[in-house]
Amino acid sequence: MRSDPSGPVPPGGAEPADATDPALETLRPGQPTPGAVGRVGPGADEGFADPGEVGRRQRHELWMRRALEVAVTGPAGPDAEPSDVDAVADIPVGAVVYGPDGAELAVGRNERELTGDPTAHAEVLALRRAAERLGRWRLEGCTLVVTLEPCTMCAGAIALARISTVVFGAWEPKTGAVGSLWDVLRDRRASHRPEVYGGVLETENAAVLRAFFR
Ligand SMILES: [Zn+2]
User: Fold this and answer.
1) Mean pLDDT, the chain, as a whole number?
2) Beta-bridge partners for 166
3) Which of 14, 142, 145, 152 has the most Cβ atoms closer than 10 angstroms to its Cβ?
4) d(Cα 172, Cα 197) in Å, to the nearest integer?
5) Quick one: fold of 57-70+89-213?
6) What is the whole-number distance in angstroms between the Cα of residue 112 and the centre of ligand 1?
7) Please, what sign has the CA dihedral across residues 21, 169, 38, 15?
8) Residue 44 C-alpha to ligand 1 middle, in angstroms?
9) Is 121 annotated for ligand binding?
């Protein structure tokens, strides 16, 4: 079930498209939003007005700011003790899972160094907690928001969880599996293909990562 009928065009629509093209279905400053220009495929003739697109973009940016907050200050947010986060050397990546109604279900921050767990990526932790909270592994209708383009493991976990929409921040050309190096989520051979919006608040997200590696 979809609460937002103005979902983006499935990759390719009527025409096979290059699924590895990062420009696909992304929202980037200065670029037309998906659907605003040349919309094809299901929904193309439904006359969605710009306010819907703008509203979705604003919601994605709001959600991304929360994910960024988790990345920078940890799940507790600004009230966290700085030592909770600063003491570890984990790359600041934050993820939030939102339910179909837009309510925050769970958050995760990359804890690979903290826990010594190679799979403790922000997305995996947030997915696990969201599933635990809902009492089921299927997260249909949910949106996962993450500050960095997911890797292959996380893209796989997102697909397995049946997440409906993925919103990510900075592109990750070296390991990104949602359009950069691979495109696991929009592979036309995959049975479950979530909607994907990349590059949301890209500048802010990239700045946080750059500051960490400086
Ligand atoms: Zn990952």
Assistant:
1) 81
2) 144, 196
3) 145
4) 14
5) Cytidine Deaminase; domain 2 (3.40.140)
6) 10
7) positive
8) 33
9) yes
CB 124 within 8 A of CB 153: yes
What percentage of the chain carries pLDDT values higher than 90? 65
Pairing of strands 94-98, 143-148: antiparallel
What pLDDT, on a 0 to 100 scale, did the predictor assign at position 76?
66
The pTM is what?
Answer: 0.74
123 belongs to the catalytic site: yes
d(CA 120, CA 126): 10
**For 69-78, 92-101, 159-168, which range has the lowest pLDDT when averaged over its residues?**
69-78
Q: What are phi and psi of 159, to 5 degrees?
A: -65, -40
Distance CA 93, CA 70 (A): 8
* Residue appearing with tokens 């600041």: 92
Note the pLDDT of residue 19. 44
* Structure tokens, 68: 């960024």
108: β partners = 95
Q: How far is the CA of 79 from the centre of ligand 1 (A)?
A: 26
Report in angstroms the alpha-carbon separations of 207 from 111, 148, 151: 20, 11, 19
62 vs 16: CA distance, rounded Å = 32
Closest by Cα among 94, 98, 104, 90 to 67: 94
